[in-house]
Amino acid sequence: MAKKVSAASRIDLGKAVENYRREGVDQIEIDQIVIIPGHNPRGYATGEAAFEGPAFEALTQSIRSFGDVFQPIVLRRKSASNLYELIAGERRWRAAKAAGLTHISALVRELNDDQIVRVAREENELREAVSSIDLLFASLDQLASRVGVPVRDLRGVLIRARDRGDQLDGEGPESQVKRWIDLLGLPSLATLVRSARLLDLTPDERQAMREGLSQQAALALLDLGDHPQRGELLEQTLAKGWNAQQLREQIVQLQGKETSAVQHLAKTVRQQLGSRQMGRLPAKKQKRAEQLLRQLEELLGSS
């Protein structure tokens, strides 16, 4: 078990504490700080993996060596208690705990629920270690919560808000979308419409985006729907370092081969549908063939 270390035992109190006080930075007990569930964009789509790995270990070691964080975290007081809610800096807070610190430098601010969303988002956008998909999923969830719809239904709301524009009345979630985008500092409506498709990514694809897979490549994979080779194409993309264009070329080749196979099968079936071949079938098989042909007719007619 790591030895508990106070930040005050490591830093130069003659200078650091004076500077901290001048800027309104306090030393807060780490055990008094609590997480607001679903608040932090970091790790929103990928979970605990956002707080693991070599970069996090390096941050922990740096904080252990220095005895404090280099940039204070942001807190607000939790009502009717002696606790503080973490607004920005969860990764630093976790690393400080892992480093064995008992206190951490923090800015304590009075912020409402809408303000803390914006603070967390803007603070995380300045840090390259925060994945774009975490920020995106947090944005979509926060927007869905504000307009009062399940996040799975949000893309439809966004599309209607985009398409109807000034024709929207004051009722319904669509009319609230633009106001909340501005208030929370979220990406543009057009960006959210395009990006909301990423909610359908598999866990492996979400993690791949966190590790560098581009949004364009992820959208290309989504175009495959539930294709059985979607997972294999993801593995090849990561292993071979394909960009979005290279991935799309592979998808076109795959679909082209499948189209050729379907066309060949259709030609074979047409040859076997002549009256002579059909007449040789037993009555039960003829009836079954008729049912299948009707289903095929409906399928092709609905495309």
From TrEMBL:
Record SMART domains: ParB (SM00470)
Pfam families: ParB_N
Positions of the ParB-like N-terminal domain: 26-125
Coiled coil start-end: none
Signal sequence annotation: none
NCBIfam families associated with the record: parB_part
Entry's family note: Belongs to the ParB family.
Protein name stated in the entry: Chromosome partitioning protein ParB
Organism of origin: Deinococcus piscis
Lineage of origin: Bacteria, Thermotogati, Deinococcota, Deinococci, Deinococcales
